């Protein structure tokens, strides 16, 4: 089972949508609260190569990007493949 981490911020509709997509897949994931100005947000920026938006999603330390990226992976069927392979 792959290790999935998602950095989110309270009140972010994109974060809610990304969490819904992951939850619909029935996979376990670690949601990390990362509001502006926190160490968690800085970690997210560093891990993603500089992306400052949330959510930021990682699969086994590989950045998948944000919500739009996740929605694209879902629409093409690639997300299921990635979740199976890890």
Automatic annotation (TrEMBL):
Keyword Nuclease: no
Recorded superkingdom: Bacteria
Domain (Glutaredoxin) ranges: 4-62
SUPFAM superfamilies (UniProt xref): Thioredoxin-like
This protein's UniProt keywords: Cytoplasm, Disulfide bond, Electron transport, Redox-active center, Transport
NCBIfam families reported in the protein's UniProt record: GRX_bact
Homology family: Belongs to the glutaredoxin family.
Functional description taken from the UniProt entry: Has a glutathione-disulfide oxidoreductase activity in the presence of NADPH and glutathione reductase. Reduces low molecular weight disulfides and proteins.
Protein name per the record: Glutaredoxin
């Amino acid at each position: 089972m792959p290790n999935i981490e998602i950095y989110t911020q309270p009140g972010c509709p994109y974060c809610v949508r990304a969490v819904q997509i992951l939850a619909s897949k029935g996979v376990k994931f670690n949601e990390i609260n990362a509001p502006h100005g926190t160490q968690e947000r800085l970690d997210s920026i560093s891990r993603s190569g500089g992306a400052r938006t949330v959510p930021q999603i990682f699969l086994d330390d590989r950045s998948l990007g944000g919500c739009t990226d996740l929605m694209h992976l879902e629409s093409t069927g690639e997300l299921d493949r990635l979740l199976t392979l890890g």
